[in-house]
Amino acid sequence: MALNLNALRPVEAIRAAALAFNKALRIPVRWRVAERIPSASRYLSQKNRAQHVLLLEDINEGRFKRKRGEFLCKARITNPAAHERLNVSDIDADKSKRVKVSCQKCLEIARKRWQ
Ligand SMILES: [Zn+2]
C-alpha cells in the first residue's frame, strides 16, 4: 500500500506555522518552549499547562532582567530539580518550537519588548 503523504501534511503545516509564530517573537537570547513541571504532590490544572518561553541565557536589559532557566513571564518554578533536569536544556530547543507559545503573559512581554 502506498504511503499516504497527504496525511502527513497537516502535521507539518501546523509545525511550520508554530515555527513561524515563535520566530516572530524575536526573543534576543536562546530559548525554548516549555511547560511548568508540577510539584510531586499535584498535577497542573489545564490552565497552568500553557506553553511558555523558557530562557536558556540571561537577559540583562537595564531594568528588565531574567536568568537562564526562568520563564519569560516568571511563572513559578515549583519543582526546581525536575525543572532543571527536564526543561532547562538546549538539546531539543529547536524541536520544542514546533509547538506555539500559548502563555498570554509570555507573548505579551515578548511583543512589547522586541517588536
Ligand atoms: Zn509564560
From TrEMBL:
It comes from the Bacteria. This is Uncharacterized protein. It comes from Thermoactinomyces daqus.
